[in-house]
Amino acid sequence: NYNLQRKKFLRKNSTTLLEVFTNDQQGFLKMCEASDNQWRKQEKEIFKDNYKAVRKVRCHALILRWILWHNRAFEVLHTILKIPTLNIWYEDYGINAKKEREKLFKFLDLDAVFDYVAFESGKTYLHYFTPEERNQIMAFIKTHARPEVWEMVQRYAEHETTP
Fold first, then answer.
1. pLDDT for 133-162, tens place per residue?
2. Is the pTM of this model over 0.70?
């Protein structure tokens, strides 16, 4: 979402915002802080007794938007429309793009076509957060996500747990 927001700033030639929200860890964390502060009043009403705990999670407002989007998407796709879905993981695609494309074509019941642009993997932003912050984020997701959504992202939590 941060990269998308910066692209919007670029299209609108918002140089001041691009200078504040730089394309690095510092700019990203400024965006998190701005987002966390923007919804303070609503968060007090929503989280009530848990408000202080929620505020301790860095970037919680953006993460909550992510959780709510995925919760709703799951509900619409699986409960309301009952549409079959296939999850393809960025990391798995980076490891074996051909295998993941084969899974996709099979799921879509299409003949496999392998003319594609080379995929560059390895873009991660884990270093933007400390291990403790990543654990807090995972606990936050587990608390607020539907069990099915948590099951999808649990693979990331397993790598983040501190001893």
1. 999 999 999 999 999 999 999 998 876 544
2. yes
pLDDT digits (tens, 9 = 90+) for 9-30: 999 999 999 999 999 999 999 9
| CB distance 127 to 25 below 8 Å | yes
SS3 129: coil
24: left (phi over 0), alpha (psi -120 to 50) or beta: beta
User: Do 103 and 88 touch, CB atoms closer than 8 A?
Assistant: yes
CA 77 to CA 120: how far, in whole Å?
Answer: 30
Buried b (16+ CB within 10 A) or exposed e, 9-43: beeeeeeebeeebeeeeebbbebbeebbeeeeeeb
Query: According to DSSP H, which parts of 75-146 are helical?
Result: 90-95, 97-107, 131-144
